[in-house]
Amino acid sequence: MNMWDGLFGGLTRTRDHFVGGLRKLLSGNQLDAETLEAMEGLLYTADLGPAARKLMENLRVEHRRGALSNADDVEVFVQKQLLDVIGEAPGDYQHDQHDGPFVVLVVGVNGSGKTTTIAKLGQRHKEAGQKVLLAACDTFRAAATEQLSIWAERLSLPLIKSEGSGDPSGLAYDAAQEAKNQGADVLLIDTAGRLHTADHLMAELEKITRVLGRCIEGAPHDVLLVIDGTTGQNAITQAREFQSRVAATSLAVTKLDGTARGGAIITIRQQLNLPVRFIGLGEQPQDLQPFAPHSFIEALFAE
Q: Given phi > 0 = left and psi -120 to 50 = alpha, else beta, which region is 93?
């Protein structure tokens, strides 16, 4: 399956609910106040949040101007508005722009798909011919280390881990030193999947960040916040708390294949003002894709 097929298939539920609902609403109906009201409700049920309100304001202005005369006009207008909200994607990692290993610190709450995302990222870099090292720095939960170990063995990726409940920041330092010694291109670091309200775990995350910076200049080069795309506004609340303690620099939005509310990616992008770097569309390594806004919207509205 190529990337387009994966994207098209992964957005099926959202397409059926959002785009299918939009086309049904516009089919044969006049673009009057009642239809516009129903459209706004549909946008909110697709989890577009505040973006829905702004989109509808702009749509009503264009409608009053007479610029939208039929369903096709409306659909093209909605696509353009969504692209404007999403903005440009940051692209894949440019690890060769750094002296030494490119360090990615992966953070997020338990259940967001964080550990699985790390494994998939490792596979992407390996397939690109880059030398990858994984570090299991979630030493608070043995199951997390075990999960990453299983993935590492399955994908034949080297893993630094602690045999017991060791010090996460100490392990992160050891992993950074090992990545330098091995000449690794990319170091991917798993962290404890913490609730944003767990102050001691958030403090540990801050410490890991400081330790990495002392070992490798500029590290971590990306703090990738993994968000479950099915949790909507709750994910945004969690992300803002993360931002107050450790500044995330990009997002991975997972589980978009399991929801009809994939529009959440638009409100997440708008409210957090962080670029979406990757999206998750399934369980297999190839189901993690670099986020390309134009391809996303094209797949969402594809027949």
A: beta
Is the bond leading into 50 cis (omega within 30 degrees of zero)? no
At residue 237, what is the residue type?
T
Residue 89: φ, ψ to 5°: -90, 155
Cα dihedral 17, 109, 216, 93 in deg (nearest 10): -10
Residue 278 neighbours by CB under 8 Å, 6+ apart? 117, 121, 224, 251, 252, 253, 288, 289, 290, 291
Select the more confidently predicted residue: 185 or 166. 185
Q: Return the half-sphere exposure (C-beta side, CA atoms, 13 A cut-off) of residue 153.
A: 7
Burial of 208 (0-12, 13-18, 19+ CB in 10 A): buried
User: Which of residues 169 and 235 earns the better pLDDT score?
Assistant: 169
Distance separating alpha carbons of residues 134 and 156, to the nearest angstrom: 11
pTM, to two decimals = 0.90
Give CA–CA dist 279/72, Å, rounded.
Answer: 28
What angle (nearest 5°) sits at the alpha carbon of residue 106, between those of residues 100 and 109? Answer: 170
Instruction: Tell me if 115 sits within 8 A of 192, measured CB to CB.
Output: no
Q: Which of 120, 138, 154 is nearest to 190 (CA)?
A: 138
* Strand ranges in the chain using DSSP code E only, listed in sequence order: 102-107, 132-136, 159-160, 186-190, 222-228, 250-254, 276-280, 288-290
Mean pLDDT, to the nearest integer, of 245-251?
Answer: 84
Beta strands 222-228 and 288-290: pairing type? unpaired
Phi, psi of 223 (to 5 degrees): -105, 100
Task: Report d(CA 50, CA 288) in Å as an integer.
Answer: 27
Pairs from 160-165 (Cβ < 8 Å, separation ≥ 24): 160/133, 160/134, 160/135, 160/136, 161/135, 161/136, 162/136, 164/139, 165/139, 165/140
Q: Is 163 exposed, middle or buried (0-12, 13-18, 19+ CB in 10 A)?
A: exposed
